[in-house]
Design goal:
- The chain is an alpha/beta fold.
- It folds into two domains: about 1-100, no CATH class; about 105-224, 3 Solenoid (UDP N-Acetylglucosamine Acyltransferase, domain 1), CATH 2.160.10.
- The protein contains four helices and 18 strands.
- The strands form four sheets. It has a six-stranded mixed beta sheet with strand order 3-6-11-14-17-18. Strands 2-5-10-13-16 form a five-stranded parallel beta sheet, with helices on one face. A four-stranded parallel beta sheet has the order 4-7-12-15, with no helix packed on it.
- Helix 2 runs antiparallel to helix 3 (about 80-100).
- The longest helix is centred in the N-terminal third of the chain and has 27 residues, at about 40-65.
């Protein structure tokens, strides 16, 4: 794994300080003088957490607007590496708790993923983890099953690569399945529970894939 550079860590810490200042400041401004009774401390803490995360979404999206993630191989000591590694720090230290905790209801997680930059069609939900929302596209009426994982990064030794994942309409990703970087899945396809879909795999519309590594189990019906 490639080391995250001190300058990249410093940039993240500056952004984190901004996030905390915005979240805590908003809490004090909105609720600092509110008559909250005996539960004042609890209410302020919960409100502070919510507002810090809202600030984190805003700062994160602004960061990606200024330094967008670059698809493909990421050269070392490049602007693309700066963006990719700060993005990793955001997830390791802030967003991973939301994505992997199973505390938030699935409909709320849809809103979280949209706030983080995922492209999700109507009536599409994930009970699993989308580890790279800005590089994840899922069409309408699709479902990602419980504890399934979709990621769009490749880390192999010192190699760092980002590849967008594209999933069509009406797709079912089974529970505990893994979908790796660069995968494309056509409309109406099914990935069976526990399957591991290797990077850059193309799954055609209406196909059923399963196994480790995933392979074609049933082709699309004729004329589909």
């Amino acid at each position: 794994m490639r080391a995250i550079k001190p300058g990249q860590i410093l940039l993240f810490l500056l952004l984190l300080a901004l996030i905390l200042a915005l979240g805590i400041g908003a809490t004090a401004l909105l609720l600092g003088r509110a008559p909250l009774g005996d539960f004042r401390g609890v209410v302020l803490l919960l409100a502070g957490i919510v507002l810090v995360y809202l600030a984190a979404f805003i700062v994160y999206r602004l960061f990606l607007r200024l330094l967008p993630l670059q698809e493909g191989s990421i050269p070392e000591h490049s602007r693309a590496e700066l963006s990719a590694n700060v993005n990793i720090l955001f997830y390791l230290l802030l967003f991973n708790t939301l994505v992997r905790s199973h505390v938030l209801p699935v409909p709320i997680m849809r809103l979280v993923y949209l706030a983080l930059g995922a492209r999700l069609g109507g009536n599409t939900y994930s009970a699993g983890a989308l580890l790279d929302p800005p590089l994840t596209e899922i069409g309408s009426n699709s479902i990602v099953g419980h504890d399934a994982v979709i990621f769009a990064h490749v880390i192999e030794g010192s190699k760092l690569e980002l590849k967008r994942v594209r999933i069509g309409d009406g797709v079912t990703i089974g529970a505990m399945a893994i979908v790796m970087a660069g995968v494309t899945i056509g409309d109406g396809a099914i990935v069976s529970a526990g399957a591991v879909v290797g990077k850059d795999t193309h799954i055609g519309a209406g196909e059923i894939w399963g196994g480790v590594p995933a392979r074609l189990l049933r082709a699309a019906p004729a004329g589909a």
